Amino acid sequence: MFDSTLRSKLDPALERLAARLARAGATADQVTIAGLVLGVAAAGAIALHWFWLGLALILISRLCDGLDGAVARITGKTDFGGYLDIVLDFAFYGVIPIGFVLADPGANAVAGAVLVFSFYVNGASFLAYAIMAERHGLSSESHGEKSIFFTTGLAEATETIAVFVLMCLVPHWFAAIAWVFAAICLYTAVSRIALASRTLR
């Protein structure tokens, strides 16, 4: 919901930092992979109850996610780079809830499983719409230059990161937060299906 607004504010700073990384020889794929490695490390820290470290690693990981596209625009975009970015982004979103489940399986397992399921359904609705939108010649630049068509929804990257931050700040509320956000993700998926029924004929 807030991705396009946030991106317009962050892009200038990201472009400057990306230029420095490109001059240092970093590639977009390396930045993408670093983002996932940091995300997995964040999940590990959370599983060990090091929630503040997990929070810091999540934020740095998502900084990498914002930088990889900017680096690619400087060094040259590739289809593989766009593909890798999408796959590793989804891996990041799945591994963070697993960290909370491992931290307290008794309290968090069911809510964590439902949250990951909602991510799966929401992600499937997003990717399926993107495939069909390309087939219909639709385009969107509200989220910046992307490898695929981006549909706006109630639960996007910005909202998901905000939820992860909140979970790290109040980890004993994980289950309640997970149930609420899972409902929001499923609502977003249903809304996207409704959009597809109107636009993809």
From TrEMBL:
Pfam families per record: CDP-OH_P_transf
Highest taxon listed in the record's lineage: Eukaryota
Keywords: Membrane, Transferase, Transmembrane, Transmembrane helix
Cellular compartments per GO CC: membrane
Ranges that cross the membrane: 33-60, 80-103, 109-132, 173-195
BP GO annotations: phospholipid biosynthetic process
The UniProt record lists the keyword Transmembrane: yes
One Gene Ontology MF term: phosphotransferase activity, for other substituted phosphate groups
InterPro entries: CDP-OH_P_trans (IPR000462), CDP-OH_PTrfase_TM_dom (IPR043130), CDP_ALCOHOL_P_TRANSF_CS (IPR048254)
Record carries keyword Transferase: yes
Stated family: Belongs to the CDP-alcohol phosphatidyltransferase class-I family.
Name the UniProt record assigns to this protein: Phosphatidylglycerophosphate synthase
Gene source species: Effrenium voratum
